[in-house]
Amino acid sequence: MCSLCSVGTFGSGSGLSVCNLCSTGAFGTGTGLSVCGSLCSAGTYWTGSGGSSSGVCSLCSAGTFGTGSGLSVCNSSCSAGTYWTGSGGSSSGVCSLCSAGTFGTGSGLSVC
To answer: What pTM, to 2 d.p., does this model score?
Structure first.
């Protein structure tokens, strides 16, 4: 008897003996999937596999942001001279310029 692939897994072909785990940055919310079509949204990431909901995705931390969906790491940082104190950013627009009298020499800063 054939069984449905469980949540967090998929079967992309016929004649499989096991289902595959959804890859990093992706998750599968239902059973019997042929692809894990759900991705962590921009500003979030996930390093694990076999995820079953968007709850596995983590927010990008202060000083960093994620510009696309399905990320396993936050792929960008605020540039030198800018910073960001929030989390879950999806573009460089979240970064603020260091104010007069302060500076930031590195990238990915949460303070100047």
So the answer is: 0.85
